[in-house]
């Protein structure tokens, strides 16, 4: 069984994001970039399925500029067998990414596609669902447990107030939630080995997908900064402030 894992290069989650002065987006100059955390979980799950003898090959794919090859090497160091880079300088939205992935699914014929539930840069949470719709595959989103049984996969999903388990016929699309697993660290020998694993580069526009975006970002703003708190001297003062300043009681 082949597993395809789309992975995205995003700002490292430890970085404090700065909005550009002209509010057209986020400042990426000299910012540490990393593998999207949910994609790391997706790679880990695919590698565990391979280690358990369920999967035979794990293929990582990333769409973007040349720099995404850094994250593909990380995916290879974490245990993916080979990588595909669909190269484009365009800033693609989820539908364009899903259309490109759908073409790749047609070429590669994976039995399972495991994606992150969302990329932490744009927080779209759309690509997996769109890919399932475009390919006609079943989808198990926000997975906290994945069990492959013959030609079916059972996915336990994190939903409001509980868990739901669905069974999908393979091939299927699964998106990962935080609690699915704890990704391993890449060891130094595996980082070295990853440099020799195959990484194919293809021009994204060679796949026959019209990369016209229907979405334009109008403005990006930073959240309003919180006002400093005040320490009150008594309960009476607190009640007074809640009544007359905050006007909540
Ligand atoms: P999103 O719908 O943008 O929040 O992303 C959800 C998931 O789709 C990510 O965790 C990745 O698995 C996949 N994805 C999104 N953008 C890309 C990309 N440019 N290249 C590869 N995979 C992507």
Automatic annotation (TrEMBL):
The record's section on PANTHER family has: ELECTRON TRANSFER FLAVOPROTEIN BETA-SUBUNIT (PTHR21294), ELECTRON TRANSFER FLAVOPROTEIN SUBUNIT BETA (PTHR21294:SF8)
**Gene Ontology BP, a term:** carboxylic acid catabolic process
List membrane-spanning regions. Answer: none
Specify the taxonomic lineage: Bacteria, Pseudomonadati, Pseudomonadota, Gammaproteobacteria, Chromatiales
Q: Which organism is it from?
A: Arsukibacterium ikkense
Q: What does this protein do?
A: The electron transfer flavoprotein serves as a specific electron acceptor for other dehydrogenases. It transfers the electrons to the main respiratory chain via ETF-ubiquinone oxidoreductase (ETF dehydrogenase).
Keyword annotations = Electron transport, Transport
Subunit (UniProt): Heterodimer of an alpha and a beta subunit.
Q: Could you say which cofactors this protein requires?
A: AMP
Task: Please list the residue ranges annotated as the Electron transfer flavoprotein alpha/beta-subunit N-terminal domain.
Answer: 23-211
Q: Which Pfam families match?
A: ETF (PF01012)
Tell me the InterPro entries matching this sequence.
ET-Flavoprotein_bsu_CS, ETF_a/b_N, ETF_b, ETF_beta_N, Rossmann-like_a/b/a_fold
| GO function term, MF aspect, one | electron transfer activity
Q: Which family does it belong to?
A: Belongs to the ETF beta-subunit/FixA family.
Q: What is this protein called?
A: Electron transfer flavoprotein subunit beta
């Amino acid at each position: 069984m082949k597993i395809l894992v789309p992975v995205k290069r995003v700002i490292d989650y430890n970085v404090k994001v700065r909005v550009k002065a002209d509010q057209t987006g986020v400042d990426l100059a000299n910012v540490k970039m990393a593998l999207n955390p949910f994609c790391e979980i997706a790679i880990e799950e695919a590698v565990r399925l391979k280690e358990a003898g369920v999967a035979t090959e794990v293929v990582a794919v990333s769409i973007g500029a040349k720099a995404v090859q850094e994250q593909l090497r990380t995916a290879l160091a974490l245990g993916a067998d080979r990588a595909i880079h669909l190269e484009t300088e365009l800033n693609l939205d989820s539908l364009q990414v899903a259309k490109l992935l759908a073409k790749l699914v047609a070429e590669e014929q994976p039995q399972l596609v495991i994606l992150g539930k969302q990329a932490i840069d744009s927080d779209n949470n759309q690509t997996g669902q769109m890919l399932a719709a475009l390919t006609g595959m079943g989808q198990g989103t926000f997975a906290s447990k994945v069990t492959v049984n013959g030609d079916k996969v059972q996915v336990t999903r994190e939903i409001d107030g509980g868990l739901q388990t669905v069974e999908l016929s393979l091939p299927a699309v699964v998106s990962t939630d935080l609690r699915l697993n704890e990704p391993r660290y890449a060891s130094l020998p595996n980082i070295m080995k990853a440099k020799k694993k195959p990484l194919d580069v293809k021009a994204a526009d060679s796949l026959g997908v019209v990369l016209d975006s229907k979405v334009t970002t109008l403005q990006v703003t930073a959240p309003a900064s919180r006002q400093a708190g005040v320490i009150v001297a008594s309960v009476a003062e607190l009640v007074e402030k809640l009544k007359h300043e905050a006007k909540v009681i």
